Amino acid sequence: MTAVKAGMELAEIRIRPETGGVAAFPSRADAEVQIAGLDALASLALTQPLRAVDAEMLGRPKRASRGNAHHSDFRHFASRAWEQRLRLLIFATNGLNVFAVGLLIQVILVRYADMDHITSYIVQTIASVQLNFLLSRYVTWRDRDVAFLGALAKFNLQQLVVTGFGIAGYAGLERLGVNYIAANVVVTGVLAPASFLSSHLWSLTDRAKDPQTTDPQTTLSGHPQDAWPDRAATKRATGPSPQRVPPGPTEASLRGNPTQLRASGKHARQHAAVDALADLTQRRAKAWPVPVAEFSETVVREPVTAAELPTKVGKYRQRRFSSKIPVVAAVSFLAVTLWAAVHYPPMRYLVFVAWMVPLAELALLVTGQVWFRFRYREAPAGKFTRLIIQVTTAGHEHERVSEIITQIRDYRLEMDYQIWVVTEPGSRTDYPLADLVLTVPLDFSAKSAKKARALEYSRRVRVSMGLDRADVKILFNDDDVSLTRGYIERAFAADYDICEGIVTPRTCYAVRPFGHFAISHADDIRTHACLVYCSVFQGILNRPVHVHGEGMTVTGEAEGIVTWDIPLIASEDLAFGQWAARAKGLRWGWFHEYAEVTSPWSVRDFMIQRSRWLWGDIHAVRHRDVMPFGAAVMVTAKYIAGVVGLAFSAAGLYLRATGRIPATSPILSYAKLSILSWVGVIFACGWIGAGSATSARNDNSRLLAGVLAVLMMPISVALTFAAVLVPLAEGDPRTFRVIRKTRSAP
User: Fold this and answer.
1) Quick check: pTM over 0.70?
2) How far is CA 668 from CA 357, 362, 653, in A?
């Protein structure tokens, strides 16, 4: 009570009339006294260490002693080290853990892989550096804003220099007859301080943040935004922002809790709007609601300022350099691994592992199919009452979108459903068979951009209509995808919060010109990924590795929990799926039905499409507000495993051709079985691709398509590999580039 009375004497209790909340404000007199006292303290305080007293103040000359200067420098260094004592302790602890893991790796390589001491030390050093980086980035220097890929490249470069001296020292100790374990201990103890200082002062420093260089009209990657309005002008056009309620839980902290998320609206008027919409929904239980007029004035959060966007700040040359870091790191890593696989026999075990991957993928495929046949859940009748099939388009493919809508109408679906089209300003809106056509306003503002921005707008329209409910499902579709009747019915009946099926290039599959023919077979790998990985990681583990937006189906409640309001330009489906997997109470599902996509019509369009996907994934991996850390690790591991596996498989073919892997090697028997399993799965992908009902291909044609899919695999793999390296070499496009979806499109 004494503390309360004292506090009451120093503050006046006032009521905020706009919110009804209670807030404590210091009285004017007390505030002036406190400020004056703080100014006096600031004038007395010293922010630098005390210097030697000036000789003129003592009235006689005095020469600074060299010993005193060294002593002062030592005290300054000691004080700086003491300030970093916690970081040093964490660094030392992580260093001991990394050292233990590296030593274990070296012992295993020396004793069980018959590797010499020098080679085993190099291998364990490479593994230890990557583990050390992860611990340094996310534990030791977790308080710093560091770009993941840039820091990874600089950290590896710094460790390459540091460990270069370490390897030289280790080799010298080895020649002196020192035991290899003792030599490892000595070298690590000497290089640890150098590693800490280089990390602290260079590789893991904060990114520069200069608000003067921030352009309010920029994209997420820092370049001028094309075709999007000035955010300041948008804010002026919409008028003053509504009064804000007292600070409470943020939307990000309430992921997975729809009740609190709904109750913690940012505007006082939003609560009334939500209540009114709930009442409207109850009164129209058997009828589809209509969008609330001017819903953006009541439900939409205020425009996001440029300061809130995760834009990269700095000179253009610096951004250009950072965009080249991934390709340099990837090529360097690939070259080192290939060189090691060819010249060091113990590394050939990784070649054998790569050769066995198709057998493991066949096991995953069988597991996923068995799970779907026996453990897949369908919702009881009446659990889901309405379905929204939404086609999101940039407006360039009016005829194709009309064709998709007509095809869906011809199915005569039995559920209560609507077809929505979401398009951009200036596009045609004459879709007579669509139930609702939404044009995203130019002044609509969200954290997301391009397609994700359009998806967020449509979500907020559904909120205004009271369709953000657990009994409503939304099936998202692109303007180049035909959905089979079985896909729509299975997606609606699936008893999951988010689910999807198999994406396959069935539309105009493997037809002329040759570029489209080859790319269609390259897209067989997408079908392969759905059959092998999505069936297990989505359907069983609830941790997706791949997520495709074509045919993704979510409940209205799940969409409201995750939202599309994520700071990104591309890969919005991957980010949404990863957040949904980690939201409390949401469950992923997978089913065996087909969404029939259209492959790009030229190699140039193929590279543009893959560049958008790749750099969208890189952006998501680098930013924790776009993708969680665990998901980022999985996506990164997917890319690394794919590239490294392909490289080691090719290295194995070279070793077999040169006789370094003899014909009598027992691993070749298993390798032949692995090749057969790979051929079987790829043949199935070609058979599925040629199975579209609209193309009316007979079984003989599908059989030929399966054989061609197998024969085209070298070209398909080469195109897929090039679709990673070429976009990396070209750099981040920093925009959402679209491609033509039909052969006759411009």
Assistant:
1) no
2) 14, 18, 11
